[in-house]
Amino acid sequence: MGVPVSLVSTLREICGEPHVVTQAHQLKTYESDGLLQFAVTPGAVVLPADAAETARVVRACFEAGVPWVARGAGSGLSGGALPVSDGIVIALSRLRRVVEVDLDNQRVVVEPGVTNNEVSAAVGPTHFYPPDPSSQVVCTIGGNIAENSGGAHCLKYGFTTNYVTGLEAILTDGTVVQVGGPQSDRPGLDLLGALVGSEGTLAVVTRITLRVSPVPEAIRTLLALFDSPQQAGEAVSAITQAGVIPAAIEMMDNLTIQAAEPMSHAGIPLETGAALLVELDGSEHECEARFDEVVRFCEDNGATDVRVAADEAERGRFWKCRKAAFASMGRLAHAYLVQDGVIPRTKLPEVLDRIDALGQEYDLRVANVFHAGDGNLHPLVCYDQPADYERAAELSAAILDVCLDAGGSITGEHGVGHDKKKHMAKQFDEPDLAAFQKLRCAFDPHGLANPGKVMPTPRLCGEVPGVYRPHPLEEAGVAERF
Amino acid sequence: MPSASELAERLRDGGPVRIAGAGTKAAWGHPVQDLEPLDVTGLDRLVSHDAGDFTAVVQAGVPLEAAQATFAEAGQMLALDPPDGGATLGGVVASADSGPLRHRYGAPRDLVIGVTLALADGSVARGGGRVIKNVAGYDLPKLSAGSFGTLGVICEVCLRLHPKPERTATASFRHDDPQALQARALELAHRPLEAEALDFRWDAGGGGVLARFGGTVAGERARALADAEVVDDDDELWAAQRAGQRSPDRVVLRVAALPSELARVLAVAGDAGASVVGRAGVGTTWLTLPDGAGAEVVADVRARLAPHPVVVGDAPAGVRGKLDPWGVPAGPELDLMRAVKARFDPQRKCNPGLFVGGI
To answer: Closest approach of chain B CAs to the CA of A134, in angstroms?
Structure first.
């Protein structure tokens, strides 16, 4: 497939020879994101130095009618940055400046290639950036914007979309738009809400204004061990029903513990049925008052052991166990598929039973690790032989059906991307998808930004029907069309 | 009682409408009173309150205070407390209205997790869902929040709820120097207090900062702040803050300011003779202009506070007709909003002309 030679030379003029990749062996670096099941070799990869170069690259693609895929760290788990073979990849890894830190107003302005962790570092030690995907060491803010990333602490603190107040976005015709700004509550349609989580299908962002938060006064973390995930689920219910909103409640089942404990040394016996990691933060007063309640709820619901992190090092080991869960799965199986379904939290016990039953039916092991507070499940379907892949994929899809039956969603934080677009028509009806398409066409009428993602089937944008009619106030000269 | 699909068919088959809820904000925006009203108060069912999941599905015509009463039975609340309790949920969401709880819990956009829209092409579209964490599909709930009904009729919303604090207490600080007030506000905003609300008020050369705490130890937390006057029975204090966002007979301006510029906003307000309430940690501030102040004063306030957006809320009819209530400048951002409008409502059926730039 590839892209026109003339476009490649234009890209070289814009970004310089070394920043346009066309050699087959170099292009391989970009052919997948964090979801390695899918690979497509792009026609070329371009690495602009700044927003101005990015806008010119996008404009050149517009003029050549060539589609593009924006890419950050490539750590996404839905194939959202999977290239298109007749298009280019715009890699934003050179846009990595922290532009402005405005602690007075609790804002930070960054370029998209800055990593999630670097944002917190830029505003520390007094402040931090709450959304914390497990990949935060490498994943970039640009990718977080595209995916509306969550993380373990989003139950209390919210998601990426709750922290973005301004974006500099480049539309597919190369127009640079300043959306929002440093202020909250600006008038107008919520274009920020539309852009964040749009998976790179509406625009590419080159500058981001984020809200940050003061670091909590106190953090208390405990690890509670149970004989079964169901018991742990009951404890979660008791905690949330009492009106406690912990900073995080994470659950790991026995298989996950078997994989992650040997790597993290959190001190969890390998035969433990389920472990619950609960973190409270906030004021000293409130934390203290609530923590004892949480311990009691765990004990009342059959916790065999409750361990309170004595210091930051122990807290670190508890969290390492949770955050290393995906990476350590290699100890149990040669390969796994990760799912990202969401269910109403109260449906947890019945959904876990159904996942168990499905695992037996398909004769595959499923490890469960999830954000228990908000019902976001990450079942890891393990398999050893390449021949088992199809079966594992079927089981993985069946788990999503279970989530939808329970009133949930096919994705809580990883995005639809390429991987889950086939499931979109199960969650949404045709009029819903048609409304999504209206939004997409408003931003990208020619379908150049990350085509083939999110929507289950390719769609084209028609011309906007209807004619402009002036408002009576305009005709009276009272208001004007700006 | 019309269903969502009947409303959608009406939009498709009929002429332009103004979408009407309880009418508490009917005059906001560019005037559309001449248009045929489309009454949505018949959508008055609280569809479900899933207390265990801290969510609820509510039709757009349900009054906010009626929904809150139901949630309170389970010790829960929708963390939105705009001034008009009688407003419908659809109206609150469409206007992105909020009150002091905005400080901790955000605006309607942050609490609406699902939406059902009747669209001008006759279809009924849903976005989001019924779970608080969900990134499937484009975020129609956020796009609807604050759209003033210009993309379609909001028929039903799914809401995230929060625990309602058992007790509250407020630490109050008086100041008669705008700089001192700003310094206090910033100092409190930067401490990890987890206050339910952090407001300020100013009138005729004096004012103060208010920090409201919730939870079992609210009183202790308020008393832990040095120099504070603590009020345990604090509902009236906060009712007054909310009331400052409205006026039956004067011009009310909403300024999207930044916390570091509160003193500057107070100086401009002082010169205009305005009284002020606002969210100290967010920056959003309401100025109520004195009796008789009109379009010239609004223009002057806008010029002096630029580039911070200044929106006209309540205003006497005579003043409203003489100014642009939104003040959003021309440019690519407004063009993009118009492009979205053109795709969702190409024939301009839904509140045409009411919103920014004549959307």
So the answer is: 16
